[in-house]
Amino acid sequence: MNNQRIPSIHDARYRAAIDILVETRKKCNVSQAVLAERVGFTQPDVSKIERYERRLDIMEFLDFLHAITGSDKTLMNRVWNKVNECHDRS
């Protein structure tokens, strides 16, 4: 059994989580620029994250999720559940 860890930015679960954030951002009609402003990033940083060129840590992920969904707990839970599904498949 190979126990070598894949860098998170290349892990299929990480990419699925980012894809889910992007999909949710677009469904909520939040532009990269607006999201960047809400979380204190630049638009190019958001773009790099969405293209898997910059790693998003767990706290940033949660900040992004909240900035996209606001206080919509149902939507936040749906995104979180999709992320967990990706983890369960690995």
List the helices and strands and how they pair.
Layout (H helix, E strand, L loop, with lengths): L11 H16 L4 H8 L3 H8 L7 H12 L3 H17 L1
Summarize the structure in words.
With 90 residues, the chain is mostly helical. It has one domain (8-89): lambda repressor-like DNA-binding domains (434 Repressor (Amino-terminal Domain)), CATH 1.10.260.40. Helix content is 68%, strand content 0%. It contains five helices and no strands. The chain has helices at 12-27, 32-39, 43-50, 58-69, 73-89. Helix 2 (32-39) packs across helix 3. The radius of gyration is 13 Å and the shape is globular. It starts with 11 loop residues before the first helix and ends with a helix.
Keywords for this structure?
90 residues; mainly alpha; 434 Repressor (Amino-terminal Domain); 5 helices; 68% helix; globular
Count every helix, treating DSSP H or I runs of 4 or more residues as helices: 5
Classify the beta-strand content into a percent band: under 5%
Gross CATH architecture:
Orthogonal Bundle
Q: Please indicate the count of domains.
A: 1
Largest beta sheet, briefly?
Answer: none
- Shape by Cα distribution: globular
Structural class: mainly alpha
Helix content: 55-70%
By DSSP, the count of extended strands is: 0
Please give the radius of gyration in angstroms.
Answer: 13 Å
The name CATH uses for the topology is: 434 Repressor (Amino-terminal Domain)
Write down the overall mean pLDDT: 86
Order of helices and strands: HHHHH
Could you list the spans in which at least 5 consecutive residues all have pLDDT below 50? none
What distance separates the N and C termini? 15 Å
